[in-house]
Amino acid sequence: MSSKDSNGDVCVTKRSGHDRGLLFVGIFKYSKAIFFGAVALGALHLVHRNVGDMVQHLVDSLPIDPEGHFVSVLMDKADLIDNHHLRQAGILSSAYALVCVVEGTGLILEKVWAEYFTVFLTVAALPYEVYEILHRFSWFKVGLMLLNVAVLFYLLWLLKRKRLKEAAERGEVGLGG
Fold this sequence. Notes:
Layout: E1 2-4, E2 10-12, H1 20-45, H2 51-61, H3 69-80, H4 83-108, H5 112-135, H6 139-169
Antiparallel strand pairs: 1-2
Helix pairs in contact: 1-4, 2-3, 4-5, 5-6
């Protein structure tokens, strides 16, 4: 953004633009919404279909041993999936995708309620994430948890900074900072 001063010279003024961190976190939340929305659509698409037959068709079309251990385990797991589980996965994934859209929209619009909402949900999910890592370890889960912790610390830092700024504007500098 630019303007001209009294001499007619062009002055570049700093935009009071958006917080890039909140924008990044909001986009991250939107990406989660897209992923879980796709999971929901996929699960609901499979309702009233025989998942075992679909997996068998997939195995037959791939250059893998249909009698191998991996295929056997995959077929056993596919046979456990019924319409109730597919509906449940679809509904829960849809609900989580909606929550991510609400979080992402609030964060991109820089709404303080969205910052608190995201902090609350992230803190609430951490015990489950730790449990999952301890019981079924994977580096992917560790990476996701570290990303969520980074988002949590950023939002806590941002909220504290806003609170201190508001206190300074009210002339309460030095009170419990």
